[in-house]
Amino acid sequence: MIQAHVSNELFQRAQNSIPGGVNSPVRAFRAVGGNPRFMVSAKGPYLFDEDGNQFLDLINSWGPMILGHAAEVVQEAVQKAIPDSLSFGAPTRKEIEIAELIVSMVPSIEKVRMVNSGTEATMSAIRVARGYTGRDKIIKFEGCYHGHGDSFLISAGSGAITLGVPDSPGVTKGTANDTLTAPYNNLDAVKMLVEANKGQVAAIILEPVAGNMGLVTPQLSFLQGLRELCDKEGIVLIFDEVMTGFRLAPGGAQEVYGVTPDMSTLGKIIGGGMPVGAYGGKKELMDYVAPAGPVYQAGTLSGNPIAMSAGMAMLTYLKDHPETYTQLEQISAKMVAGMQQNLQQLGLNYTINRIGSMFSIFFTQEKVVDFDTAKTSDTALFGRYFNSMLQRGIYLAPSQYEALFVSTAVTEDLVAQYVQANLEALQEAHQG
Ligand code: PMP
User: Which residues carry this modification: N6-(pyridoxal phosphate)lysine (predicted)?
Assistant: First the structure.
């Protein structure tokens, strides 16, 4: 039995001074029961908590740590940058270098602006789309999460749906009215919305592979159809690649599917674990951003030298080591093949969705292609499964509506350990 005395005490204490005891709701264990574990350090595939437990980490800080924790290449770059000061608030050479690197890696990006989080990236991208088109409405997809900007907390996935607040209080009716929603993978529904709001839609924003309702892959025809529709109607197509950027391929999901958006938003891996986001796209659109153009967007710490050093080291490594993606594909495929075998052995028929190093198990027999089908999963069963895995030293996302992220630190031995834990946890979860 893994002990959690210290974490439990810290969680009690945290709740007095921090809302819900956590600085981001997705870290709470509300949906799965129990208390969150408080971490002290992490290295390679492992997290170490306050009680001295070691966990095999399959969230990896919700995506950024694609090379595992405390990767030397990133740590060294940060250490080298620190003596030169933590912030200048003035331009640096590093910002040009990382911008040039991003432009060279991501197909749709001709110019890019660095920000401090994925939320800032998506908020800014739709402001540019609205400023450019002179239109107010946006279309997003049910179950997609684009950070906590007001416009996106409508039918939102991730922590919002986990906590049962996909439409957050505090968002004004006016803002909510400007966000139209459609089911993921449903091109006809989008066409109908566009038709009913002719000439009023500034942008269609989506996760080109959705990771925030559990992992849901797009039909290629859906992405291609959105591209055609946006071209025809003068709508800005935005791919939110905060999760998928640099994870599915050096150029993200747009490289994998060969569909090029007008704008892209990035985060997570781009900062190598530091708080970084970015948005970019066609020159014509990005030249609308201040001070080149009239759409205002700024940031005291944007392009922070330490964060840029971490990001630069991470992206340079990924660009120079394309075999990283082959390795991640092979390891992740083995993990999922092992899970499939376990399901078969136990006579269970659940759905596992995977692309590259992202995957989810849904406790439903239905094919999961959108938010409605994702919601057919038995979340109580997921909760028991999650806790059984935790007891076996495997740290998963504490919600059905999240994807797992595999890092290059997961070895063959760890795959075997994971698959065995999965078998036992599936059995235990069904006894509960
Ligand atoms: N977009 C997507 C697709 C995300 O997954 C997330 C965060 N998980 C965000 C935006 C928001 O990023 P952040 O948490 O850095 O604000």
Answer: 268
**Average pLDDT of the residues in 220-232:** 98
Ligand 1 pocket test: pick from 65, 114, 119, 141 the residue with the most ligand atoms within 8 Å of its Cβ: 119
Instruction: Outline where DSSP puts E strands in 136-219.
Output: 137-141, 179-182, 201-206
DSSP assignment of 39-93: EEEEEBTEEEETTS-EEEESSTTTTT-TT-BT-HHHHHHHHHHGGG-S--SS--H
Domain covering 5-70+322-431 assigned CATH 3.40.190.170 in the classification: no
Q: What's the CA angle centered on 312, arms 307 and 315, to 5 degrees?
A: 120
CA angle 210, 354, 26 (to 5 degrees): 50
Q: Please list the helix, strand and coil fractions of the chain in percent, rounded to the nearest 5, in that order.
A: 45, 15, 40
Compute the average pLDDT of residues 362-378.
98
DSSP strand pairing (46-49 vs 236-240): unpaired
The tokens describing 197, both together, are 């709001």
CA dist 428 and 430 (Å) reads: 5
3-state secondary structure (DSSP) of residue 385: helix
Could you say which of 240, 350, 401, 418 is catalytic? 240
CATH of domain 72-320: 3.40.640.10
Rg (C-alpha) for the chain, rounded Å, is: 21
Domain boundaries defined on the chain = 5-70+322-431, 72-320
Q: Which one of 94, 137, 140, 268 is the catalytic residue?
A: 268
Q: Which residues of 232-323 form beta strands (DSSP E)?
A: 236-240, 263-266, 277-281
pLDDT (tens digit, 9 = 90+) per residue, 265-299?
Answer: 999 999 999 999 999 999 999 999 999 999 999 99
Q: Is 257 a catalytic residue?
A: no
Report the number of secondary-structure helices (H) and strands (E) in the chain.
15, 14
Read off the pLDDT band of 161 (50, 70, 90). confident
Residue 83 exposed, middle or buried by CB count within 10 Å (0-12, 13-18, 19+) = exposed
